[in-house]
Amino acid sequence: MRIEIVEGDITGRTVDAVVNAANSSLLGGGGVDGAIHRAAGPELLEACRELRATTLRDGLPVGAAVATPGYGLQAQWVIHTVGPNRHAGQTNPALLASCFTESLRIAEGLGVRSLAFPAVSAGVYGWDARQVAQVAFDAVRSYAARSPEGGVELVEFVLFSPETVAVFRSVLESGF
């Protein structure tokens, strides 16, 4: 599995799936979540409402993941995951790691070969970008070591700010 770091807008990536740093309601929000909902179009909100009305009546739990079609995105799929909110006392790195491993598990089940992640839980959810990068890279590498050949081949971390890109590159190059 190849890991790349890209500065830019995750909604414009030409990959099989993008990961949405969603809130548990799945009904849109700010940041990456809002951008993905806007770019995908109203069908994404309808698909998320359907999930809430059927299988996820209480919302998507922290660390879990679920997929919907990508609708207006270039990506065929959106994999929604809810990162832990440090401000709400959700400080266990295992919850954050689960966001990455569960997203990869869902992607593999869909036959996804290329996947783009944002910096889940960095920013408004209060996690330090360096810790997010360390947890993310560790989770991706551990998943790759356990997964069979022919699964996800490319994982992109698509980051909006040059500062976050620099942190992720530093962590990746250091081998942490």
TrEMBL record:
Database matches in InterPro entries: Macro_dom, Macro_dom-like
NCBIfam families: PRK00431.1-6 (NF001664)
Ranges where the Macro domain occurs: 1-176
PROSITE patterns listed in its UniProt record: MACRO
Highest rank taxon of the organism: Bacteria
Organism: Arthrobacter globiformis (strain ATCC 8010 / DSM 20124 / JCM 1332 / NBRC 12137 / NCIMB 8907 / NRRL B-2979 / 168)
A Pfam short name: Macro
Identification of the protein by name: Macro domain-containing protein
